[in-house]
Amino acid sequence: MLAFLLGGGAPAHAQIEETIDHAFQYKACMTLVKSAAEEALESAMAWQARGGGPAAQHCAAVALLALDQYRDAGERFESLAEAVDRDQPETRAGALAQAGQAWLLAGDNERAHAAQSAALEIAPGNVELWIDRALTLALAENYWEAIDDLNYAADLAPRRAEIYIFRASAYRYVDALELAAEDIARGLALEPENPEGLLERGILRRLQGDLAGARADWLKIVTDYEGSLPAETARRNLEALDVKAE
Asked: Do 98-158 and 160-246 come out as alike in CATH topology?
């Protein structure tokens, strides 16, 4: 994506562009996003006015994302994708993927799904896109469709533990517990210490009546991954388990 983004602005600004190091400007802008997103946005907008082109537009979109202005970020990423030449498919797919993430954060699953689907039409071999769209589908409670996307992801990256862990969760939501158990075993065989995997296995064990096994998984997460989201979820599950035991 970077090679295209640094291609410069419109020909009308050619004389100005000669005085701008676009590669340096892009790097500086993206670095500034991490510490001062509002300043980065202002810088990107000023740079775009001086012929910054797609690179400036991309930095502005990333800054908007960092500022939690998700809808504006989604619009800008989609505009960037439209601006990319058709002979730059990976760049277009990348912009659409980021648009999908922005729309998902904005709570607009429909637009997230549309952006991700458009990206997949361009780059069907991109495993991250299949995973991202599966997440969008799962959040919309379209679990079987999410499973279909994760099947494609597993075909593309058969040694990615997170795919099996995520698919196990989707299977659990459709009450296919045996398939869920098979997937969680696959995922943890690849990454035995994966906290999301241990959390999911604990949930499955509880549903199958193995309360001791569930407790062991959740205790391990709480002990080894203190402060993480899986640890907080595991803690709540342990508390619920203790309440039921009383």
From this structure: yes
pLDDT tens digit sequence for 162-201: 999 999 999 999 999 999 999 999 999 999 999 999 999 9
For 170, how many CA atoms within 13 A lie in the half-sphere containing its CB? 26
CATH of domain 98-158: 1.25.40.10
pLDDT in tens, 91-119: 899 999 999 999 999 999 999 999 999 99
Closest CA to 136 of 104, 173, 171: 104
Rounded CA separation 184/161 (Å): 9
Q: Which CATH superfamily is domain 160-246 in?
A: Tetratricopeptide repeat domain (1.25.40.10)
Degrees, nearest 5: CA angle 91-96-101: 125
